[in-house]
Write a structure and sequence with these properties.
There is one protein chain. The chain has 415 residues and is of the alpha/beta class. It has two domains: 206 residues, Glycogen Phosphorylase B (Rossmann fold, 3-Layer(aba) Sandwich); 189 residues, Rossmann fold (3-Layer(aba) Sandwich), CATH 3.40.50. The chain contains 17 helices and 14 strands. The strands form two sheets. It has an eight-stranded mixed β-sheet with strand order 3-4-2-1-5-6-7-8, sandwiched between helices. It has a six-stranded parallel β-sheet with strand order 11-10-9-12-13-14, sandwiched between helices. Strand 7, helix 8 and strand 8 form a beta-alpha-beta unit. The longest helix is centred in the last third of the chain and has 19 residues. The radius of gyration is 22 Å and the shape is globular. The mean pLDDT is 93.
């Protein structure tokens, strides 16, 4: 088959500047290229000026200049309706979509796999009516944004793929007419890079780890409150916070969510003094936990792996999580996890086997779970072994690509 993966215009796809969706795009494309003709559409960058064919994949650079001009001309200003934001409209990144659509038709591609950008689908089908469009959702936008707007876009989509049963289920419930087009395909990780240490040292202090963006929806404030309780019982515990300090724009989640726990996060927006990450750091110092909690910011990939391998527990208290990559990477490293029972993490974490699930937003329950596992080293070790086994069986790149190919084959053979 002639396959195309259409990245989001802002995704970093090629190393070393990759985001999580960019990593997925690059890893999947390289594996598909062993059996198919694969093109990846992505924003133009310096690497692509010298080489466009890597590991059997053709990388097609798309100029963002037309969209710079179009966005200046249209300049929608503040969104009047939070459920119809500018980023969900067809004209958003229209220049990018038009360039992709033209080349898809020129190449005669059979399938276009679009990451999150549902508004691209009608444009791609307009230029190439026989094209099969797979829309891969890594967030809950289809169930959160204006139903009429999303429904019009979905009419041009042949398969809707959610990254967890949580995301897929929300889409099926809101759009029952499209339920037969829905499939679930989990994210994947490199189970040959994320591996347990063979001779891991166990010196004090006890290491807890959070990996993710320091943003309100990730629940770092809940974790800090839990740590106040944990350190009263276990003063030897330390927490490393690894991840970028950028706060997710409110109109991407908080303004459009009907979950009261998520909507309540609006209190962290609109402040004129400190952003969320600064508030968290300030709160840690005020609580006298500066020697306990360390903020490391965004780290190179290899350093993240090392943190996961050396942690005693990974903690993910997210209030909204479509999939939750960090817990799966931790399990692959043999590190047990404690996560909020939120979104895709209810798929990935086998509660009581590979880790524990706690009530979202409940710092007291989170602290109790942390203390309970730290008090039972045998249970911790058993969870680490079970997590490694689960990660390899369900979330390796080869397993996920095999399932993805079956979606492509089913769609092209039967529809």
């Amino acid at each position: 088959m002639r396959l195309a993966i259409v990245s989001q215009p802002f995704d970093g796809v090629l190393p070393p500047n990759q985001n999580s969706i960019g990593i997925w795009t690059n890893e999947v494309a390289r594996r598909l290229a062993a059996r198919h003709d694969v093109t990846v559409y992505l924003q133009s960058n310096d690497t692509l000026k010298t080489k466009r064919d890597l590991d059997g994949v053709h990388y097609f650079p798309i100029s963002l200049r037309p969209d710079d001009i179009l966005q200046r001309r249209w300049s929608p200003g503040p969104d009047a309706d939070p459920l119809v934001p500018a980023y969900a409209r067809r004209r958003h990144w229209l220049g990018y979509a038009l360039q992709v659509a033209w080349d898809l038709r020129r190449r005669g591609c059979d399938v276009a796999h679009v990451l999150n950008s549902h508004q691209f689908a009608p444009t791609l089908k307009l230029f190439h009516p026989s094209l099969r469009v797979v829309l891969n959702m890594r967030c809950e936008w289809l169930s959160q944004l204006d139903r009429g707007l999303i429904g019009r876009h979905l009419r041009a989509v042949d398969r809707i793929v959610g990254c967890s049963t949580h995301v897929t289920g929300l889409i099926e419930a809101r759009f029952p007419d499209f339920a037969d087009r829905c499939r679930t395909l989990p994210n994947a990780i490199d189970t040959e890079t994320f591996v347990p240490l063979s001779n891991r040292a166990e010196p004090p202090p006890v290491r807890l780890l959070f990996v993710g963006r320091v943003s309100p929806e990730k629940g770092v404030h809940v974790l800090i409150e839990a740590m106040k309780r944990v350190t009263q019982v276990r003063p030897d515990v330390r927490l490393d916070v690894v991840g970028g300090m950028s706060q997710l724009p409110g109109n991407y989640l908080v303004d459009i969510s009907d979950d009261p726990l998520v909507s309540d996060l609006a209190r962290f927006y609109g402040t004129e003094t400190l952003g969320y990450s600064d508030l968290m750091k300030s709160g840690v110092e005020q609580a006298g936990l500066g020697h306990v909690i360390a903020f490391h910011g965004q780290l190179p990939y290899a350093e993240v792996v090392a943190h996961l391998q050396n942690a005693d527990l990974l903690i993910n208290p997210s209030l909204s999580e479509a999939f939750g990559r960090g817990p799966v990477e931790a399990m692959a490293c043999g590190t047990p996890v404690i996560c909020a029972a939120t979104g895709g993490m209810t798929d990935t974490v086998d509660d009581g086997v590979t880790g524990l699930l706690t009530a979202p937003g409940n710092a007291e329950a989170l602290a109790a779970a942390i203390l309970a596992l730290l008090a039972d080293p045998g249970r911790l070790a058993a969870m680490g072994f079970a997590g490694r086994r689960r990660a390899v069986e369900l979330y390796s790149w080869d397993a996920v690509v095999r399932d993805l190919e079956s979606i492509y084959t089913e769609m092209t053979d039967r529809d």
